[in-house]
Write a structure and sequence with these properties.
The protein is built from five helices and twelve strands.
Length: about 325
């Protein structure tokens, strides 16, 4: 017996919202000390000058009668950092608001558009942290690394991340942290690794085989977990993994990129007899990577005109900058 189908109009509406999922990028984990300068009304195009001071010390200018004369000098430099103003806005009018209410979604059109605006500001800020505000994308932490290297082939000639021998991949990653630590005399802490989510998930889930790599945790723990344990044992450094799709295809030849960033610094108090006594000068002001935010996050509702309400979000901030290039390393790889 044939069946007849008839579409009924008007059709029913399932209440609620089916939301698209958006990636949560913890870009704050890559930023060290954050400063706040400036105020509303200040010229947006001005440059903040970051002070940099160094002490140049030479010992042994004279060998006469074994009298070593210490020669020393201090230099003060400044680094210019540009500001940018970022704004977004949304409008709500009486007709669209009434129509939105009939959808019975549980939120108002005002709340709906406000959430989108806040998210757009966050997405823009994350992009500025890594690539800057200019169209050239030549600013930010992505371009500040002291060294860019490609993942070398392992002992079996594998070059892709997912085919790499796990123990050798672990060795390679630990070596990168060791280089950062060596260059800073063990003072750069903690460590943040920013990479596409597929790479992060792989590191977190790929077990280090016990048969070919007898390291603490091998056979039971993932590359990421063993890596975190080794790095912490090396110098008490905590590691944070940050998924970020912005790193996808950003390397040479469209390779993916893994940024290894030391956003902070720990300087212990030195005694007068210490060879690092100068570290005591302004030790609270040491900054490795930072983004200045003059206005933080401001929301300005405009008066209603012709049944239309407009809300403007505005902020002023710089790209994330590094005053120590050796605090950032860039690894290019094929997944």
């Amino acid at each position: 017996m044939p069946m007849n189908f008839e579409r009924i109009f008007p059709h029913a509406v399932a209440k609620g919202i089916v939301k698209k999922l958006y990636e949560s990028i913890d870009y704050n984990a890559a930023i060290g000390k954050r400063t706040n300068w400036g105020s509303r009304g200040v010229d947006v195009l001005y440059h903040m000058m970051a002070d940099e001071i160094s002490a140049n010390t030479v010992v042994g200018n004279s060998s006469i009668w074994r009298r070593d004369i210490p020669a020393n000098d201090g230099t003060l430099k400044q680094m210019a950092i540009p500001y940018y103003k970022v704004q977004t806005s949304y409008t709500v009018d009486a007709d669209s608001e009434a129509h939105f209410e009939k959808l019975d979604l549980g939120i108002s059109e005002q709340e709906f558009k406000r959430a989108i605006s806040i998210q757009s500001m966050g997405m823009r800020r994350a992009h500025i942290v890594f690539f800057g505000a200019d169209a050239t994308e030549k600013q930010g932490l992505f371009n500040a690394s002291s060294e860019t290297t490609a993942l070398p082939a392992d002992s079996a000639s594998n070059t892709k991340l997912t085919t790499y021998i796990p123990g050798e991949l672990l060795d390679f990653l630990v070596a990168q942290i060791r280089k950062i630590s060596d260059l800073s005399y063990n003072m750069l802490k903690p460590i943040t690794i920013v990479a596409p989510i597929d790479a992060i998930n792989y590191l977190r889930s790929k077990i280090v085989p016990l048969t070919n790599y007898q390291e603490k945790g091998a056979g039971t723990s993932s590359i990421a977990k063993v890596f975190e344990n080794i790095v912490y044992d090396m110098n008490g450094i905590n590691v944070k993994l940050v998924p970020c799709s912005y790193m996808k295809g950003k390397g040479s030849g469209s390779k993916d990129v893994m940024l290894i960033i030391a956003p902070g610094i720990e300087v212990k108090e030195e005694e007068m007899g210490s060879t690092a006594y100068f570290n005591n000068v302004g030790q609270d002001d040491y900054v490795n990577t930072f983004m200045d935010d003059a206005l933080e996050f401001q929301e300005y509702p405009n008066p209603e005109i012709d049944e239309v309400r407009k809300t403007v979000f505005t902020s002023i901030y710089t790209p994330a900058y590094s005053v120590r290039a050796d605090a950032i390393r860039s690894i290019e790889y094929t997944y």
